[in-house]
Amino acid sequence: MLTRRQSLTLGTAAVFAPLLPFPALAAPQADWGSIEYLPEVTSAHVGPRAVTLWQPPADVVPLDEPLPVIVAQDGGNLFDAAASYSGTAWELDRAMQAHIEKGGQAARIVAVHSGAARSMEYNSETVLAALDGEMADLVLRSCEGPLASNAYLRFLAEELLPMAAGRMALAQGPAMILGASMGGTIAVEALMTRPDVFAAGAALSAHLVLFGPASQAPDFGPFPEDGGKRLAAAWRKAAAAHFPAPGGTRLWLDRGTEDLDAFYPDSHIALTESLLAKGYVAGDDLMVRVDKGAGHFETFWQARLPAVLDFLLPAKG
């Protein structure tokens, strides 16, 4: 996986666009429920970025009723196609409507828009530390700077969630985290390193191969021929050492089979096998899906949302 030859075949803007920063294009609008758009939330740990707070309609769930919270990455792509960098959105508000109307648990959503440091903030410092020096150097150069997942998760835990709790009625206890591509990587990192804050997460087309967009420059290589195996070994080591014991953490992990997702099996399988070895139960606290024929784009993640929400927010009783 991700040998030098394969990296060159990946080197197109269309394929690698989901790894680039997603700027806030406009204030997103909701078709169902209400949105509060905060164009510039500042932090002591990371750079400023936009945040979208979403909640169900007040006539469906009273505004003062505490609900679980989902912290979602790449917030500009989640609700409104007009605000999405790709012109396509997940339609997360409509997915939540369908989920609630069929009896699933309701939730409020804190959607964090990504910034210029996306590939550094969303990547895994834990797995980087488990890599050998050559591979670690390649990852850092591909992301064009030091990784900052620890700082980003401090922002979510210590600043953003308390701020959101002051604006929406949130239930006590751990939050959930959701993301796709590199947003899926930080979702896995959050469960692995901050189980005090996040108890469940969904990582769609999780970019566990770690490499950022700069790896597609013609002069970036060479990639080691065994690079995929070395990445997979780092995921095994990191998950074995840092993922919490089963019983309090739940993970949805999926991938497609086309585009960038075609390069994901080794690392996804390594993480899955490591969690199963720790005692996680497939179909219970670990849900792994392979969506054959699916690629790396919002429409594919939108299609998987109903099942993801069923996993994160199952019907009570």
TrEMBL record:
Pfam families registered for this protein in UniProt: Esterase (PF00756)
Alphabetical list of InterPro entries matching this protein: AB_hydrolase_fold, Esterase-like, Mycobacterial_A85_antigen
Keywords, sorted A to Z: Signal
Signal peptide positions (record): 1-26
PANTHER family membership: ENTEROCHELIN ESTERASE-RELATED, FERRI-BACILLIBACTIN ESTERASE BESA
UniProt name for this protein: Esterase
Species for this entry: Neogemmobacter tilapiae
